Every structure is written in structure tokens, then in C-alpha cells.
Amino acid sequence: MQRIKNYINGKFQEPKADNWLDNYNPSNGEVYSKIPNSDEKDIEEAVIAAKKAFPAWSNSTLEDRSQVLHKIADGIEKRLVELAEAESKDNGKPLSLALTVDIPRAMSNFRFYANALTQFSSEAHESVGKNTINFTLRKPLGIVGCISPWNLPLYLFSWKIAPALAAGNCVVAKPSEVTPMTAFLLGEICQEAGLPEGVLNIVHGLGANCGQAIVEHPQVKAISFTGGTKTGEHIARTAAPMFKKLSLELGGKNPNLIFADCNYEKMLKTTVKSSFANQGQICLCGSRIFVEEKIYEKFKEDFVAEVKKLKIGIPSDAKTDIGALVSKEHLEKVKKYIDEAPSQDAKILCGGNLVEIKNHEKGYYLEPTVIEVKSNHCKLNQEEIFGPVVTIMPFKTENQALEFANDVRYGLSSTIWTSNIDRAMRLSNSIEAGIVWVNTWLNRDLRTPFGGAKDSGVGREGGFEALKFFTEPKNVCISY
Ligand code: NAD
């Protein structure tokens, strides 16, 4: 059975304690590889390697750094199909999605920051009348920790690593233990691209062991984390007293506001996607759908009809719309929310059942589920389910829609469907979320700030925001 290895100091190695975890294939429930159950000793070795590599990497020219990042992007592009197959097998997502979204985006992340680092500049402030000039140096932080989740494995891993490296830092990174495979392959790609040893170290294992060891390590100056709000809270509690820089991209419970004056066909098609893409396991999925009363019954009928057409199947089948959920534990968690729906005065309109697929009977398949709720205060509307489950509910007025949208602890993204520009602007101003999409969804320009408000996180990724996060500004004031 394949054994994934840690990538430390430019070499692949086994965990020091010779301790291993099972890695499951969600499409059939079988263990198909072993991953290192690393601990603080492996992290220590990674930190030592990163420390040794830092002086040369942080002083490398922008051109050299940019060239290596481009080579990593080339390596991902060259191995696109292999990486997409690995991602799909590891995560359960349709291969078609990994081929068209996950892996191309991971490639773009490296490409984007290979270019962005050559355009990143610091400010100068001339204090006129005082014969003084100030300028700001932006120094890399040193060693930084990047910790990512399982839903978009290589996509989110690279979204952190690329800017951290571009800014001149050395990185100790940990992918999710649930989906480690493409991070392992990224190590090979970095080796082939000529990334100097120790600049990027990828350590595999459990959050509580090796993740915690990264966060606690005194030499790690910043943590860029994407994952659940509860984990983010725990990380903040550990890192804040050590005065580490923190970027936390956390959970969401995103509202999708649909007005009667919207482009109905476009809205319907996109809403199916924003509800169920990647089995609803995207932090940006619109999991709470609110529909203007006038078109509520029509929407309900049409939406349920469209959802029923989605094909649940094995991830490698090109016709599959809904693949497997990522793990047995996650499937059980999502199913529990569905089973509790009747006790919350909510009605399952379609889906809700586990699905058995021939020759893949032990896979983690679940029907896409639409639940009609009576109140925005029920658990189904207040807690992040993070699976193929959406709720729908009518609203009467724009103000009521806004109230529903904001009446939740999260504030990651939101979607508004309307052809009224005034309304779109009013709502965009008032919605408590880091991202507002109007008449579109998951439409991303990598230059824009990405992140959440409220319990969805702290800080922003994307564009120069990430380069700013991964550097320490130092002002120099010269009198002449
Ligand atoms: P998770 O919080 O369980 O794990 C995320 C990562 O943190 C994993 O690598 C895990 O091993 C690690 N970890 C766990 N405990 C740790 C600790 N004590 N110290 C250090 N690291 C630790 O999240 P998950 O279940 O993998 O991912 C799903 C969650 O991620 C959802 O809540 C989803 O909304 C969120 N998410 C957010 C965004 C965003 O951009 N805001 C994007 C994707 C996913």
C-alpha cells in the first residue's frame, strides 16, 4: 500500500515515530494509502530546515523567486490529469470538477503570485517642508505556518503557500489529514522545479498533533489557517498570546437572496450549482436560500425539479454531478442534521437519503437535499452543515431579506439575485459578509480581497492582501 511521506528539507521522509494513519477513498470506503502521523519532532525538523533556508530565500532576487514559482505552476499544469485523479480519489469530488476547477486553480495560484511578487511595491511618504522622507520596507516574516482543510485540498493549500513563498518566507505547511495526496505530489513538483531545500516543508498528520505543534512553535511567526470556526478559535487562543500574525478563513452559512425581478433562468441554474457543487462542501456555497414571496412557490417547484435531475455517482464517471462526501464521520454529521429536520418544524422537499451505488456500496453518498424551514432561527439555518443540504424560506420585503441574511453568526459570502441596481447597491452595502455576489456566484478575480466577517474569520487573502499579510512593514524615516 502506498505510503505518503513528509517533504522536509527537500527530501521525502517517514515520520520520526514511525506512526501512520489510514487514508480512505470516499467513493468505496476503502483504505488505499497510509499517511504519516507526524508529531512535534517532525515539525521541529521542518522548522530547522526552514530556518536554514531562510537567509538565501529571503535574499533571492524577485526574478529568481518568480521563476521558481512559475516552474511549480508549469509542473502542476503538466501533471493536471494525474493531480485531478488523485484529488478526486482522495476527496470523493467528481473528477470533472477537479479537472476544471481544483487543479487549474492551484496552478493559477502559483502563476498569479509568480507575477504579483514582481508588481508588489512599498509606499514612500515625503514630509514636505520638513526635509524628510519616509519609505516602508516590506520584510518577509521568516518561517510561517500554512494549515488547510479537506474540501478544496490543493486549491486552498496553494492559495496560502504561493503568496507566503512569493513574499520571501519559508513555510511549514500541513494539509488536511483527510485529503493529503495532492499535497504530497506538490512536494515532488517543487523538487522538480528546483525550489531550494527547506523553503517549503510539507508535514502530514492530525491537527491536534502536528497542526498544534506548528501553531505553538515559537519560531513560526504567522499562521495562515483555513478550516472550521471552532478550530480557528482554538488556534487563535494558542497563537494570540505569542503575538503571531493570524489569518483565519473559517466557516460560513451564506445567504442567497432571490428577488422576483431577477433573471430567473440564470438564477435557477446558478443556484443549483451554488447549493450543491462539490457536494455542497464549499465554504462559499449558498446554504440558506431566501426567496421573495411572489415567486416562492414557483421557485420551490422548479428548484426541486432541477435538483432531482442531479446525477449521484462515482467520482470518476464523467456524468456524475454529485460524488461522495469526504468521510464517513462527515456523512454521519450531515445526515444527523437532515434527520433532525422534522423536529425543527422543517420539511424535506427532496433528497435526504443515503445512496448505495453498485460495486461501491461502502461509499459515502447522500442525495442532494432541499429543506423548507419556517424560521431563520432553527438549527438548520444557524449552524454550518457543509454538505449537500440547503434550506429555503420566503421573505416579504427587502428589509426582511436583509434581516434574515444578517441574523447569523457567520459572514463569509452572500449572493443577491435582482435586476434592480439600487437594491443591489443597498444590499451590498448592508450585508454583513466579506464577499457579495450580485447575479453571479463563485466568480473570482484573484486580485480581490477574500475572507469573511464575524465568525467567518479574521484578515483577508488574495492579491496584495496576502503579500501584505506575509510581510512585516518597517518604516524608515530619513531627514536630509
Ligand atoms: P478543520 O478545522 O477540522 O481542519 C482544518 C485544518 O486544521 C486541518 O488540516 C486540520 O488537521 C487542522 N487542525 C485541526 N485542529 C488543529 C489544531 N489544534 N491546530 C492546528 N491545526 C489544526 O476543518 P475541515 O473540517 O478540514 O474543513 C471544513 C471547514 O473549513 C468548514 O467549516 C469550512 O467552512 C471551512 N472552510 C473555510 C474556507 C474559507 O475560505 N473561509 C474555505 C474552505 C473551508
Please describe what this structure looks like:
Residues 16-476 form the Aldehyde dehydrogenase domain. Keywords: NAD, Oxidoreductase. GO terms for molecular function: aminomuconate-semialdehyde dehydrogenase activity. Pfam families: Aldedh (PF00171). With 480 residues, the chain is an alpha/beta fold. Helix content is 40%, strand content 25%. The protein is built from 15 helices and 25 strands. Strand 16 (354-357) and strand 17 (360-366) form a beta hairpin. Helix 2 runs antiparallel to helix 4, helix 3 packs across helix 4 (95-119) and helix 4 packs parallel to helix 5 (153-166). The N and C termini lie far apart (68 Å). Nicotinamide-adenine-dinucleotide (NAD) binds at residues 147-151, 156, 174, 176-177, 207-208, 211-212, 215, 226-228, 231, 234-235, 249-252, 283, 384, 386, 412, 452, 456-457.
What's this, in brief?
This protein has 480 residues and is of the alpha/beta class. It has 15 helices and 25 strands.
* Distance N to C terminus: 68 Å
What is the count of helical runs? 15
Parts with pLDDT < 50 across at least 5 consecutive residues: none
Q: What portion of residues belong to β-strands? A: 15-25%
The secondary-structure class comes to alpha/beta
Number of strands: 25
Bound ligands, named by name, code or SMILES: nicotinamide-adenine-dinucleotide
Instruction: Please state the CA-atom Rg, rounded to the nearest Å.
Output: 23 Å
Shape descriptor reads globular
Order of strands in the sheet with most strands: 15-18-19-14-13-21-22
Main sheet: strands, sense, barrel: 7 strands, mixed
Please estimate the helix content: 40-55%
Mean pLDDT over the residues: 98
